[in-house]
Amino acid sequence: MLKLLPDDDIFVQAKLAGLDPAEVFSHEDLSGRDLSDRDLRNFKLRGTWLNGCDLNHARLNGAKLPDAQLCGANLTEAKLCGVQLSDANLNGADLRRADLRGADLRKADLKKTNLSNTNLSGANVQGAQLGGNIGLTEDTKRDLKNRGAIFEDSAAEGNSLVKINIQWWIKYVIVPLIGILML
């Protein structure tokens, strides 16, 4: 395991230690770092913590990030074609204008992400969790649902509707019926 210094360039540190930067950062905590404009193509970052990282314009095509934590990360205009983000947590991430063509987003947490002008063509969204997102049209939501994405918005709306119906039944049917039977 590489001991990372907070203010140093982590890629230079890895190279100075004789390590391959594309291989060494799995399961490391890189949260809050500025990785904008970096070429991280084909990096193996399984389980890596990248919460709050600036990955603006980063090139992550083909990178492996299953189980990674990217909460609140800035991925604006990032190149993520074919990236593996299965089971990753991207809650609150900014993915505006990101290119996620062919990405593996199975079971990823995409709640509260900004998906304005994000390209999700061919992305595997089976079991991906969405809700409270910015930038999704109704057509895009419908397409993502048809491809297996789960929207909490619709589940929450459904639950509140059930509560209203149950309350209505209790108040206007069951209680009056009990009152009539008690007479």
Can you give a write-up of this model?
This protein has a two-stranded parallel ribbon with strand order 1-2. The protein has helices at 10-16, 21-24, 138-146, 152-182; strands at 129-130, 150-151. The chain is elongated. It is 28% helix and 2% strand. The model is unreliable at 155-164 (pLDDT under 50). It is built from 4 helices and 2 strands. The chain folds into 2 domains: 1-148, Pectate Lyase C-like (3 Solenoid), CATH 2.160.20; 152-183. With 183 residues, it is mostly helical.
Set down the secondary structure blueprint.
Elements lengths: L9 H7 L4 H4 L104 E2 L7 H9 L3 E2 H31 L1
Parallel strand pairs: 1-2
Shape: elongated
Report the total helices: 4
Number of domains: 2
Percent of residues in beta strands? under 5%
Describe this structure in a few short sentences.
The protein is mostly helical and 183 residues long. It is built from four helices and two strands. The protein has helices at 10-16, 21-24, 138-146, 152-182, and strands at 129-130, 150-151.
